[in-house]
Design goal:
Layout (H helix, E strand, L loop, with lengths): L13 H33 L5 E12 L3 E12 L5 E12 L2 E14 L3 E12 H7 L8 E14 L3 E14 L5 E11 L5 E10 L6 E12 L2 E2 L9 E3 L4 E10 L7 H6 L4 E13 L2 E18 L12
Parallel strand pairs: 8-15
Antiparallel strand pairs: 1-2, 2-5, 3-4, 3-6, 6-7, 8-9, 9-13, 10-11, 10-12, 10-14, 14-15
Length: about 325
């Protein structure tokens, strides 16, 4: 074979390949830019935009020794001309990184076009679950919390988006007060009907004040009920403090039979008390139980001078 018949090897210029790749990449970028521009123009023409949301309030409408019902208010604003569905709501409440409760609310409703709505997220915190999981959380304490909410909405042009929200606060772990009938002081004594004053001592074992508004109770002396009475005026019980409450009662001493004489002689009288107190707290109104069985109290005559002196026979 002649040298002229040898196949020629043509070297491709690397610059030429780079130019073609650049042209290809430039074309893709132009398509992306075109689509982006079209999307923006559609958004501008029709008025589509991303919704916004904010936690506007956290309420505790009901709380007792067992649970707290919490309601989180979230204000959602929809700038779009069409309604947008609120697909899911994910929520989590933790305390210093420890989960207290979490949940999912599906199909949470629709936000009207060019409108705003307050979405209420109900959450129930069960105290027994918290105390069993985290034994260092004691009754009567106040714990910090952080609530995290993810709103998942479906918006035209943008598609499905998630709006994350956070809010900090405090929640109490209520504890029932201790109650003691220190003494029963007679204002007017007769066997048929006597008027006396119950000297109640209430000890608040919570890290927050209690504003006592109402008292619903029944007292038994030596297994005989002396009935109940209403609280005449409100009282404040400071956090981890003690308050003395005086409540008038009317009962019939002759119903106690021979046990009455031991009472009159000033010997210790067995009693039980059971009921509830209605209180105001920084976290809302609460109804807390009070109870004591097997207590011992004294019956005193109303006389001038030192009321704590023992009665003479």
């Amino acid at each position: 074979m002649a040298s002229s018949d040898k196949p020629k090897i043509v070297e491709r210029d690397s610059n030429e390949e780079e130019i073609k790749e650049d042209e290809k990449g430039g074309f893709v970028e132009k398509v992306k830019d075109f689509i982006h521009d079209i999307g923006e123009k559609i958004e501008e023409a029709i008025g589509f935009g991303k919704p916004t949301a904010d936690v506007t309030g956290i309420h505790i409408p009901h709380i007792n020794l067992h649970k707290a019902e919490v309601v989180v208010d979230v204000l959602v604003k929809n700038p779009n001309p069409v309604p947008i569905p609120l697909i899911d709501i994910n929520y989590l409440i933790d305390s210093e990184g420890r989960k207290l409760v979490s949940g999912l609310i599906p199909d949470a409703g629709t936000i009207h076009g060019h409108g705003s709505e307050t979405v209420k997220i109900p959450v129930t915190v069960i105290y027994d679950d918290i105390k069993e999981t985290y034994q260092d959380i004691k009754p009567g304490s106040i714990i910090p919390y952080k609530i995290k909410v993810d709103l998942i909405v479906d918006v035209p042009v943008f598609g499905r988006i998630t709006i994350p929200l956070e809010k900090n606060g405090e929640i109490p772990i209520p504890y029932k007060p201790d109650v003691d009938v220190e003494k029963i002081q007679f204002e007017r004594f007769s066997f048929e009907e006597s008027v006396a004053i119950l000297h109640l001592k209430l000890e608040n074992k919570n890290d927050f004040d209690l504003g006592l508004n109402a008292l619903d109770y029944e007292v038994w002396l030596v297994d005989m009920s002396i009935g109940s009475a209403e609280l005449e005026k409100s009282a404040k019980i400071d956090k981890n403090g003690i308050s003395n409450i005086h409540i008038p009662v009317t009962f019939r001493p002759k119903d106690f039979g021979s046990a009455l004489w031991d009472m009159i002689r000033g010997k210790g009288t067995g009693y039980s008390i059971k009921g509830n107190i209605n209180v105001d707290t920084p976290f809302g109104a609460m109804k807390l139980p009070i109870s004591k069985e097997g207590g011992t109290t004294r019956l005193k005559k109303n006389k001038d001078g030192d009321d704590d002196d023992d009665d003479e026979d």
